[in-house]
TrEMBL record:
One of its GO terms (molecular function) is transcription cis-regulatory region binding. The modification 4-aspartylphosphate is found at D52. This is Stage 0 sporulation protein A homolog. Residues 3-114 form the Response regulatory domain. It comes from Ruminiclostridium cellobioparum subsp. termitidis CT1112. SUPFAM superfamilies: CheY-like (SSF52172).
C-alpha cells in the first residue's frame, strides 16, 4: 500500500494514526517536530504526509515548503478557521481536516488523496477473490462475480477499513449515504450476500453487538 509520514507532536494522536494506518495495510514513520520531519524527508520518500500545523520548531505552514514536489499533504489540525483552511490549501495541501476527527473519515480522506494522486494500489486480493478498485471488477477463482451497486460500495468500504470494526450504523451511513433512512437490517442482508458470493464466510467477521470487520492477515 502506501508509506506515510505522520508529523504530529502529540504522541497519543500520532500513535493512534500509525496504528490505524497499519491496520489497513499502510506503513508509516512518525516525526514529532518540524526539524525531525525535515530529516525524515531527506532520508525517505513518502506516498503521503499527514501534518499538524502547530508544531515545535517550525509550523506546518512553513514545513510544507520543504515537502518534495508531487508529494501530497493532508493538514490535520485544531486550527479550524476559514482563513487557516484557505491558507493551507493555497500553500499546496491536498486536504485539510480539523480535529477532533473520526478515524474512519481520516482513512477515507487518505484513500481519496492517494487515489487522486495515483499513489494507491488499485488491486486488492484476498484468498481467491480479486477486487479491481478502479474498474470495480470482482473475480473469484478467475470468474467475474456480479455485485449490485450497494454490495460493491459495502465491499469497498470493508476493504478500505480492513481489520477495523465498523458499526452497522457507520456502514449504513457510508454505503447508503446520509439521506438513507432504512433499518440497519439491510446491512446484515448485504453482508450475508457478500459472504456467499466471495466465499468470505470466515473473512467478514461479526463484531458482537456492533457490526462487522473484514479480517485480513497482517
Amino acid at each position: 500500500m502506501a508509506h506515510i509520514l505522520i508529523v504530529e507532536d502529540e504522541k497519543s494522536i500520532s500513535d493512534l494514526i500509525a496504528m490505524n494506518l497499519s491496520l489497513v495495510g499502510h506503513t508509516s514513520e512518525q516525526a514529532y517536530g518540524g526539524n525531525e520531519a525535515i530529516e525524515s524527508l531527506k532520508r525517505s520518500s513518502f506516498s503521503l504526509i499527514i501534518m499538524d500545523i502547530m508544531l515545535p520548531e517550525m509550523d506546518g505552514f512553513a514545513l510544507i515548503q520543504h515537502v518534495p514536489e508531487n508529494t501530497p499533504v493532508i493538514f490535520l489540525t485544531a486550527m479550524g478557521n476559514l482563513s487557516d483552511r484557505v491558507r493551507g490549501l493555497k500553500l499546496g495541501a491536498d486536504d485539510y481536516i480539523v480535529k477532533p476527527f473520526e478515524t474512519v473519515e481520516l482513512l477515507a480522506r487518505i484513500e481519496a488523496v492517494l487515489r487522486r494522486t495515483h499513489r494507491s494500489l488499485s488491486l486488492f486480493s484476498l484468498d481467491d477473490t480479486v477486487v479491481n478498485l478502479e474498474s470495480r471488477v470482482v473475480t473469484v477463482n478467475g470468474s467475474e462475480i456480479e455485485l449490485t451497486l450497494r454490495e460493491y460500495e459495502l465491499l469497498e468500504i470493508l476493504i478500505k477499513n480492513k481489520n477495523i470494526a465498523l458499526s452497522r450504523e457507520k456502514l449504513l451511513k457510508m454505503a447508503w449515504e446520509y439521506d438513507y433512512f432504512g433499518e440497519t437490517r439491510t446491512v446484515d442482508v448485504h453482508i450475508q450476500k457478500l459472504r456467499k458470493k466471495l466465499n468470505w464466510e470466515n473473512r467478514i467477521r461479526t463484531v458482537y453487538k456492533m457490526g462487522y470487520r473484514l479480517e485480513v492477515d497482517r
